[in-house]
Amino acid sequence: MLKVLINESDVMFRRGMYYFLSDFFYQWFNRHVEFFTDYTPENIAHADVIILSLCNGERYTCFPELRLRQKGIIIGLVDEKASSERSPFCFADIVYIMRRESLNEITRKLTVAWRAWLAGEGFSQYITCFGCKLIKITPQQRKILASLHVKHSVKDVAENMCVNYKTISAHKYIVMRKFRLKNDYDLFHFLDMLHNKNITRIFL
């Protein structure tokens, strides 16, 4: 029995993943699947497959809890196209699947990833963050993003920090480029995600 952990808040999409993965692993590998949705250290450690729903930019942030993994593959559900940028060490072996990809393409990617895992000689756990390619931002950018997240305008942030509004705008767009965020919607969705997950580690 394969253990699949799905960290996805959209109930309908999650249900579709249940049906698809159950059929996929039975038809292609003659394996039954047991699903979990509690994103706990124990489930992370024992899952054969971990599926993460990622907002734009999130693939460049840190997921230290994934260092608990002991086996299997990890799949990132994304809306953005593939990037040449490397993901942090904690999930450098992730397979990205776009939500709008065809079932044939998703099946192909999963087949390749699972066969590679079966053919592998073992699981290489990441036990250190030393040398990680994690994208970081400056303390000033962190302060600006924190102010923007509480719905302050660029002008308000500039006045509060006693700088020119062009400086605030420049830092905002530097951060957006770092995390491949296309517009303000992406930016604020990204900031909401960081806030909800209480992520401060990307700002170190």
**How would you state the average pLDDT, rounded?**
85
| Amount of beta strand | 5-15%
Label the overall shape: elongated
Question: What characterizes the major β-sheet?
Answer: 5 strands, parallel
Q: Cα-atom Rg, whole angstroms?
A: 19 Å
| Spatial separation of the terminal alpha carbons | 40 Å
Number of strands: 5
Helix and strand composition category = alpha/beta
Helix content: 40-55%
Uncertain regions: pLDDT < 50 for 5+ in a row? 200-204
Summed up, the helix count is: 7
Order of helices and strands: EHEHEEEHHHHH
Spatial order of the strands forming the largest sheet: 2-1-3-4-5
Layout of helices and strands:
Blueprint (H helix, E strand, L loop, with lengths): L1 E6 L3 H19 L3 E4 L4 H6 L2 E5 L19 E6 L16 E4 L4 H17 L19 H11 L4 H8 L3 H14 L5 H13 L8
Parallel strand pairs: 1-2, 1-3, 3-4, 4-5
Can you tell me about this structure?
The structure is a single chain. This protein has 204 residues and is of the alpha/beta class. The chain is built from 7 helices and 5 strands, in the order E-H-E-H-E-E-E-H-H-H-H-H. It has helices at residues 11-29, 41-46, 103-119, 139-149, 154-161, 165-178, 184-196; strands at residues 2-7, 33-36, 49-53, 73-78, 95-98. The protein has a 5-stranded parallel sheet. Strand 1 (2-7), helix 1 (11-29) and strand 2 (33-36) form a beta-alpha-beta unit. Helix 5 crosses helix 6. The chain is elongated and about 65 Å long. The model is unreliable at 200-204 (pLDDT under 50).
